[in-house]
Amino acid sequence: MSFPKEKSLSEKYTSTRDYTTFLCTPLNEEDYVIQVVEFASPPKWHLAHTTWFFEEFVLLPFLENYEVFDSRFQFLFNSYYNNVGAMLARNFRGAINRPTVEEVYAYRKYVDNAMASLLQQTSSSEIEERIVLGLNHEQQHQELLLSDLKFAFSKNPCFPVYKSDFIPEHQKINAKGTKEILEGVYEVGFNGDGFCYDNEKERHKVYLRSFGIEKAPVSNAEYMEFMNAGGYDNSNFWLDEGWNWKCRQNSGAPLYWKKQDQEWFHFTLGGQVKIDEEAPVCHLNFYEAAAFAAWRGTRLPTEFEWEVASAHFEWGLRWEWTQSAYLPYPGFKKAEGAIGEYNGKFMLNQQVLRGASIATSAHHSRNTYRNFFHANSQWQFSGVRLIS
Amino acid sequence: MSFPKEKSLSEKYTSTRDYTTFLCTPLNEEDYVIQVVEFASPPKWHLAHTTWFFEEFVLLPFLENYEVFDSRFQFLFNSYYNNVGAMLARNFRGAINRPTVEEVYAYRKYVDNAMASLLQQTSSSEIEERIVLGLNHEQQHQELLLSDLKFAFSKNPCFPVYKSDFIPEHQKINAKGTKEILEGVYEVGFNGDGFCYDNEKERHKVYLRSFGIEKAPVSNAEYMEFMNAGGYDNSNFWLDEGWNWKCRQNSGAPLYWKKQDQEWFHFTLGGQVKIDEEAPVCHLNFYEAAAFAAWRGTRLPTEFEWEVASAHFEWGLRWEWTQSAYLPYPGFKKAEGAIGEYNGKFMLNQQVLRGASIATSAHHSRNTYRNFFHANSQWQFSGVRLIS
Amino acid sequence: MSFPKEKSLSEKYTSTRDYTTFLCTPLNEEDYVIQVVEFASPPKWHLAHTTWFFEEFVLLPFLENYEVFDSRFQFLFNSYYNNVGAMLARNFRGAINRPTVEEVYAYRKYVDNAMASLLQQTSSSEIEERIVLGLNHEQQHQELLLSDLKFAFSKNPCFPVYKSDFIPEHQKINAKGTKEILEGVYEVGFNGDGFCYDNEKERHKVYLRSFGIEKAPVSNAEYMEFMNAGGYDNSNFWLDEGWNWKCRQNSGAPLYWKKQDQEWFHFTLGGQVKIDEEAPVCHLNFYEAAAFAAWRGTRLPTEFEWEVASAHFEWGLRWEWTQSAYLPYPGFKKAEGAIGEYNGKFMLNQQVLRGASIATSAHHSRNTYRNFFHANSQWQFSGVRLIS
Amino acid sequence: MSFPKEKSLSEKYTSTRDYTTFLCTPLNEEDYVIQVVEFASPPKWHLAHTTWFFEEFVLLPFLENYEVFDSRFQFLFNSYYNNVGAMLARNFRGAINRPTVEEVYAYRKYVDNAMASLLQQTSSSEIEERIVLGLNHEQQHQELLLSDLKFAFSKNPCFPVYKSDFIPEHQKINAKGTKEILEGVYEVGFNGDGFCYDNEKERHKVYLRSFGIEKAPVSNAEYMEFMNAGGYDNSNFWLDEGWNWKCRQNSGAPLYWKKQDQEWFHFTLGGQVKIDEEAPVCHLNFYEAAAFAAWRGTRLPTEFEWEVASAHFEWGLRWEWTQSAYLPYPGFKKAEGAIGEYNGKFMLNQQVLRGASIATSAHHSRNTYRNFFHANSQWQFSGVRLIS
User: What pLDDT is recorded for position A5?
Assistant: First the structure.
């Protein structure tokens, strides 16, 4: 976590936790509980799960005499940590009408109070690291809360508005041209002082060929050219798995797009609006990103090319799909026990995305950050940048 | 609808509508919106759908200049009436975070006001019949609201309590012995003055053999004997489809039952409580009811046997599965248009249940009433009575 | 079994068994083994299963010192008799490359020889009844062999020909007008001397209203009118379950029909041929039969109406869907043990078909015969006759 | 294809084609046609598809006046080449009872004759390259024919024997110790004169850290230790996707293993035999290979580590799962048109296997060969070698 240096851990804790609740201010109570698909969890669940993370991984091991707020929450709000016990099946997160939203906020307060005690008493680096992990974890869920919410809202044919212009989905980047990188051995992976996830390590050498990379991400206008050129109808641009996905879904545009009277609109957190052609295209999955690149006669960057070149272009409006599978770096070691389940066990059949998005929390991005999702995932704020 | 005769239609309208909202008094706002399975709709949806029924089938055709509250509701709250347009897929009823509960109550009020106007102005029998249908429809949904709620609450591992002793699930019947009915031609089907559904007509003759029927429904104690005798493990008692269901589900007890420390508990609207052995068994599906009867060396009554004998025993705590498939009576004609979709199109592959249950609304039962569900359905308040 | 009286049981045994192998004469060895869908078994399996039936239910209990041909066959060729042990999952019947066809014929011969011994030695009525059951069972599988084969062949885009004009699928009935039956109490169910299945008993009284029934089954020409009138596009003609089936399948014609250059063809056991408009329509499922009747403003007969009227019209080219669910008759008792599994356990969620078809074996039809299939089944030679 | 240099292309063609039919000599006609699962095709299909490949990609474009044997085969035996037209759905390959085996052999002969003509007439390098591709393609299918057959036979509870000792599944490698490779930049990918697939190119540099690799693949004895240590019951050794697979399948041993009386047996092409503890473990999927490595506290090699070290150990009894996802090499370009579909479109969500197996055809292996399968695939002759 690359917070301003001057901030104490306590201050960082408070501001991070507050931001999660701030994101919920536009919500009605009913918005907190809906789940329309297994992969998109209700806001209430995010609020509680991030709290459970501190309870389970900080307070229980490190705060003497800590008593859990409610033992049933250990089952309800465990996401996927087999080492700390059983968990509610993911597709039943929408069944959690109780505890109520109010009770979940009480839970947050209870844990925050206990965390305050702990932060006052203690200063071991082990505890601090665990807390920092918890804060980064919470920041990840802040973005997920937004993307999950957007997906759930989109399934309501009334297209509810979360909040106008809260998340500037139309923000643009003005950039042109290509950055050329020369062949050679480069170092990649995290090597700073601050926080990083275990999957960003070890820093290691890779051999890269010369390549050029576009300074701007692909825009809506460019993507529409692909659509207009029949890109969704020509199997030659698609990976086999992508083509099957396309045929099954009968897809012809990015997620959330809808054509009305010859014009393209898309659903945003601020409601249904006209596509802004200059904004970077969003909500592509890997199949679409790769098909677009093939149509353009080029390819996506690998995550290493992206990292090496990243100082030379602006990023952060859209997660950028790379050609790299999400795999362990040389020397990667997962931690013992439950914490080791955080990242390592997902290193198969997912693709790496690099960068950040307009929904990513402040202080939660760096050019070694490895985000990862399945190739069919569209609901993240994901776009594409091309090798030129 | 067999309301006390002295009540005006207006009074009946008000009391029926009020009872629906009364049923929702114990709910938190979040309870209104959850859907955990396709067949069990959220309370909010029931509140709105019953209102839509009056809007679509009474106000739009009969109240001059009526304007719908919100045209989107015609899509959201249409259940299955193809004749009046498209509808939200059933498994997305839980996505309706908006309109909010408050807005749905405003919708109810708006429609109630319009209905009040209509009821003052008009007195055609056509309109009155349609209103009475709407009230009976709402009463059906009152029971569904309770059974759907019970199912949703049961999927929350916290087992939330709806309300203690609101619905007396443990009520008993003290009855013994058998009623004998002699062979002969009997008349069945509705022939009174009041309301009945189209599926209860035409009244017609059936030839019945002599039979005896038990005056009491099967109790929990009797059902436990079946369980203890290995009833769930012997395919010979089961219909083929039932045995497949049992194997797939690995069932060994009725829905909502749980064994703790050698004692059986079950989940009720009043929370998790010990099984009362003398109460009638509940939440059986047809497979279980039929297997139980086979184990006892007997069978379920047909719906005609049940109807003919029904004056001679007490009923109303549990819907009672019959051996009869839900089929049209001789001379059955479905109405023109959407109203004709109410019952007729479901006359295939469902079983008839007779009687009523502790969750059935007052004035919503008669001995010609034909309830119907799929053979695998357990979530209604359904039990069994045997031919002796 | 209503064989000519003069035939001995031995002769009946031989002629029935021979007819099964005769049906296989047009087959290549590869045809014997293919299974393209769970419900349609390979010819080899039918050959072996009917043999297993005699081994399991006649030879093992009644022929002293009988030794099974191959103990593995007891698992491979048991269809659904839980009382005699485990069985191969139905969808793996196509995995039986071994035993080979040759070995299965050797199995048939081995069992036939043992049966010959038994038939010479014994004359108990218990044994004779069991043998007659086995022969009727084999006759049922003769028809299934043909309908399963037709289905499998139809999935091969080369449309292989089983045999031209072996089964006269285009045979017609010349009949006109209506037979009127008067209201009254009638007796239905089997009461002759010969063989019947347990499901045809007990003979019992039913009360029927007056009705008229068409003397001719519905023709292809009549069904095409329904198709041309948009019958497949109007939900009002369809049962809800039927409409869902239609939408999911995107059906617009009976099974095996294909339009080529504005003309309708269909796949038959003799190859792809033009529809004969005067022949009775075939390969409808119950949904289609019922929708057709609704479009014509009428309905299907009940199985009792059909039986009572059956002396007055010609039947036997197509199984005729009735409006009756397949349920036990009054007084129905299933036999003890495995034989009791033959019919009784299937008495739920299937529809009765009456009559016979051009694929039904000789001496295997009577007007009390109750055939039954699921409402979505199209692959039998099934048509429809209307109440007029 | 690294055939002995002295052989002419004609000789290579004949010997490769003959070997395919030789592999079928132990088969009955019925064995040729069975398909028990979508991914395992019948032998007849392999025989015809490899022939179709020459017809479609060599004879049609290059042999003047060539006429296809049967135009329907272009649909039946196209596997996945969208550029040359529609194809039979993969799960209906078992429906191909016709053409018969005999006709398929006639098809092979017809194409072989035409190929002989072509080979006499022509000597363009373009044609030669295409023929060599066809021969390599056929060799791949020779191995698939064996692994598909083994899978199909295994689903027959009679466990048919293909041929004893035809494929020496128990062959062993006697090797010990570790090969150490030093850190540095290495070249990987094909750069010889002979044939390679497009996915082996371009040869490129990679930076490798120092590592050691075991000279012997993991044996059955070693894998049994993992099983006995509860390896299948501890989620910490498994990738998340692998753990879900394990739980769903309830797996506890490699494919084809069965415990009888405290001893492990496995199904082979030569029948059911006792496990040979010293032979390399076989029929692991990637999940199992990776879990085993985690239990041993190590990992699988990457495909580059494997290639660089491969000169220093013996390989060829089992395909060896690597930690590398199947992705394009730098500079990879797929060919225009249908031939470009051969490999490139599958470069997502599959894992690379290196080496060869006892079922791999002679002259069809090299240390740059990239085999690839989904992580859950067990039916190939796949094992594992560890980083030490």
Answer: 61
- Which of D241, D328, D331 minimises the CB distance to A349? D241
Prediction pTM value: 0.96
DSSP 3-state of C176: coil
Q: Please determine, for residue A141, whether its predicted confidence score (pLDDT) is greater than 70.
A: yes
Cα–Cα distance for residue pair B161/B268, rounded to 1 Å: 8
ipTM: 0.96
Residue predicted with more confidence, B3 or B223: B223
Q: Do D82 and A345 touch (CB under 8 A)?
A: no
Order the strands of the A319-325 sheet from edge to edge: A371-373, A351-355, A319-325, A382-383
How far, in Å, CA of A293 to CA of A213, rounded? 12
Q: Which residues pair with A271 in a beta bridge?
A: A268
Q: What's the CATH fold of domain A168-383? A: paralog of FGE (formylglycine-generating enzyme) (3.90.1580)
Pairing of strands C382-383, C371-373: unpaired
Q: Which of D185, D186, D202, D240 to mutate to test the interface with A (most CBs of A within 10 A)?
A: D240
Is residue A99 reached through a cis peptide bond, with omega within 30 degrees of 0 on the bond before it?
yes
- Partner-chain contact D97 C155, CB within 8 Å: no
DSSP string, D36-58: -BTTB--HHHHHHHHHHHHIIII
User: What's the first-to-final CA gap in chain C, in angstroms?
Assistant: 32
Residue the block writes with tokens 């043909």: C146
CB B375 to CB C349 under 8 A? Answer: yes
List residues bridging with B321 in a β-sheet: B353
Distances (CA, A) of C173 to C147, C219, C302, C313: 21, 9, 22, 10
Contact assignment for D204 to A205 by CB distance below 8 Å: no
Extract the tokens encoding D8.
């002419």
In angstroms, the CA B151 to CA B41 distance is 10
Angstrom distances, CA of residue D75 to CA of B192, C156, C297, D78: 66, 11, 44, 6
Helices and strands of chain B, counted as H and E runs: 10, 11
Of D76, D100, D155, the CB nearest to C95: D155
Backbone dihedral region of A245: left (phi > 0), alpha (psi from -120 to 50 degrees) or beta? alpha
Residue of D69, D39, D41 lying closest to D56 (CA atoms): D69
Q: Check whether C164 has a pLDDT greater than 90.
A: no
Please state, in angstroms and rounded to a whole number, the distance separating the CA atoms of residues A159 and A155.
Answer: 7
Task: Give the CA distances from residue A250 to residues A243, A303, C57, C247, in Å, rounded to whole numbers and listed in that order.
Answer: 10, 30, 53, 17
The CATH number of D9-154, from 2.30.40, 1.20.1070, 1.20.120, 2.60.40, is: 1.20.120
Residue-range domain boundaries for chain C:
9-154, 168-383
Select the residue of B33, B72, B98 nearest A33 (Cβ to Cβ): B33
How far is C-alpha A97 from the geometric centre of its chain's CA atoms?
26
- Residue A214: in which H helix or E strand, if any? strand A211-214
Q: Which two tokens stand for residue B186?
A: 């009997």
DSSP structure class, residue C267:
E
| Closest listed residue to residue B370, CA positions, set B306, B280, B288 | B306
* Distance separating alpha carbons of residues C283 and C358, to the nearest angstrom: 12
Instruction: Classify A225 as helix, strand or coil.
Output: helix
- pLDDT tens by residue, D83-140: 999 999 999 999 999 999 999 999 999 999 999 999 998 779 999 999 999 999 999 9
